[in-house]
Amino acid sequence: xxxxxxxxxxxxxxxxxxxxxxxxxxxxxxxxxxxxxxxxxxxxxxxxxxxxxxxxxxxxxxxxxxxxxxxxxxxxxxxxxxxxxxxxxxxxxxxxxxxxxxxxxxxxxxxxxxxxxxxxxxxxxxxxxxxxxxxxxxxxxxxxxxxxxxxxxxxxxxxxxxxxxxxxxxxxxxxxxxxxxxxxxxxxxxxxxxxxxxxxxxxxxxxxxxxxxxxxxxxxxxxxxxxxxxxxxxxxxxxxxxxxxxxxxxxxxxxxxxxxxxxxxxxxxxxxxxxxxxxxxxxxxxxxxxxxxxxxxxxxxxxxxxxxxxxxxxxxxxxxxxxxxxxxxxxxxxxxxxxxxxxxxxxxxxxxxxxxxxxxxxxxxxxxxxxxxxxxxxxxxxxxxxxxxxxxxxxxxxxxxxxxxxxxxxxxxxxxxxxxxxxxxxxxxxxxxxxxxxxxxxxxxxxxxxxxxxxxxxxxxxxxxxxxxxxxxxxxxxxxxxxxxxxxxxxxxxxxxxxxxxxxxxxxxxxxxxxxxxxxxxxxxxxxxxxxxxxxxxxxxxxxxxxxxxxxxxxxx
Length: 557
Ligand code: SPV
Ligand code: MG
What we know:
Elements: H1 2-15, E1 20-25, H2 28-36, E2 41-44, H3 46-54, H4 64-77, E3 82-85, H5 93-105, E4 110-114, H6 135-148, E5 155-160, H7 168-181, E6 186-189, H8 197-205, E7 212-214, H9 224-229, E8 232-237, H10 240-259, H11 272-279, H12 281-291, E9 299-305, E10 325-326, E11 329-330, H13 331-341, E12 346-351, E13 364-367, H14 376-382, E14 390-394, E15 398-400, H15 402-409, E16 415-420, E17 438-441, E18 458-464, E19 474-482, H16 484-500, H17 516-525, E20 531-535, E21 539-541, H18 545-554
Parallel strand pairs: 1-2, 1-8, 2-3, 3-4, 4-5, 5-6, 6-7, 7-8, 9-12, 9-14, 12-13, 16-20
Antiparallel strand pairs: 10-11, 14-19, 15-21, 16-19, 17-18, 17-19, 18-20
Helix pairs in contact: 2-4, 5-6, 6-7
Magnesium ion (MG) is lined by residues 46-47, 58, 85, 87.
């Protein structure tokens, strides 16, 4: 169990040579930073927790539950051991027993209790009443604490406030001895002197029977090395982190208030990514991929819609093809509605011909102003910023049933395209103007109306418009899904070709004029698997005037 390990870790730190460097935290985040900075242990500070949790004085105003809750958060956030500041033990010796049980269960390595009367007051508040309980009573609390711990490794530190109360070094040393007698694993003799001199003298007189703990809050000039030379075993830098945090927050607020813009404090802030790293966003993303159902993660849709196709004139005289109206809705509006229906809200579109006409809200726009002399692939890479994570590449002239999209989104493959096997059954003369993107699969489908979707996806062998129709098995419908690594692969393959600039590029005269299908063929030729999800009808494209008429006839409003 983690708490046993934590207490054992603290014991091991105390057993090794050198001083144990401990820093005060007030919450899980500050504890994490302390751990990342390389300190040995965390002090869950009563002063810091009172200030940050409720903005109240360090005066026994927090209940044990409140203090323990924060301390537990701290313990859960880090792997280094926690020493919990437990003030007076939240009551008498019996309360201390329950406290030890609860703190130990929370994974705390050790606790520290002080001999102030309850309610305690922070050692450094000047004008407050200060009384100590009798050393016998505090020794009783120490005995109670030791008797209540479950693991032998759990550490009890006894703290005396005799020097703080002005009762002198003899009283402090006497109390420390009594607490060690009672079984304390270490003693903390607290001092408010502004120099180390007082504690140096005390340490020289200390019997050494248990290790000494020191909190150099007021005599801050002393170094850990010097404390180590005087046989202190644990040093606690108790409240420097919260005090510097307060200063940083103040300074930021002052600048924000003066300049009235967030960028005015940009040099004072960590980048958002640093916060993400601190709190473990990468792990969260990994877990999402591992444990959430496929197809529910964020997908970016990219629609290349730059091209101009003469054969559609005069239909597209004054608008790009994706804005053709079919029964009161443009193709693009229909596509966006379908994408939204499967929860795809990140949609990027690449405009070119009549670009100013495309102005739907909530889309991200990219322009390919060289649309006349470039192909689809160049258009897609105009939106290269969008090519990260899972991506859906979608031709701008197709309308499809939502089920097709749902089926595609479930694909676990890196690169998946949708192919229509109905093509084999359709007479080519029915659509004489069309130049379909034909595909050949590794497993020829069962043809005709006996179509049964194959168990798993088939693998693409060949794709293109110049494929022999006799040998083709299906038609690519213009929907491509890339997984996160599929997207990286797609980008890398394109970059590789860009560097080489071989002409022709598959069916295209050059890479510049290439279609997506040329790149898909290239991926296949490079040995990558392009999976094909098969469908049977349920979609249409608008490539010709006849297609457009057909769409009007077929589509419901
Ligand atoms: C605390 O951090 O709450 C302490 C240490 O008890 S000090 O405030 O320096 O006394
Ligand atoms: Mg305290």
